[in-house]
Design goal:
By secondary structure, the chain is α+β, with helices and mostly antiparallel strands.
Length: 118
């Protein structure tokens, strides 16, 4: 039986096979499928052959926790700089802008995640 070129190439790349090995594998699979399957078995075969497709899921809404420590740090830094120049808070937990000697600067505060042990 002739197989689609895309099926052969898929087997070659996914399983790291030569062209002949991929064709032989497809033929062996074809011989195995020639046995009559029940409706339930066909359903399982279909599910197993579609395993590499990603299921589309609705995007999850994650509740973002307020980081009071970062807010306090940004607030203290902004208060210090307000003495000398104008300061614009872009994000109260992350960044602010200020001008120094006629040039604008942006300060971004980041807090690395804690390292997992083990």
């Amino acid at each position: 039986m002739a197989f689609k070129e895309s099926e052969i190439l898929k087997m070659m790349t996914k399983l790291d096979l030569t062209r002949e090995e991929a064709i032989q594998l497809l033929q062996d699979d074809e011989d195995d499928v020639s046995v009559e399957l029940t409706a339930e078995q066909k359903k399982v075969v279909k599910q197993m052959t579609q395993g590499d497709r990603k299921k589309e899921t609705a995007p999850r809404k994650r509740e973002r926790k307020v980081d009071d420590n970062k807010r306090n740090l940004i607030s203290m830094l902004v208060d210090c700089l307000k003495i000398f120049t104008t300061v614009e808070v872009v994000n109260p937990e992350r960044e602010f802008l200020f001008t120094y000697n006629g040039e604008q600067y942006k300060v971004v505060l980041s807090k690395p995640r804690a390292k997992k042990e083990g």
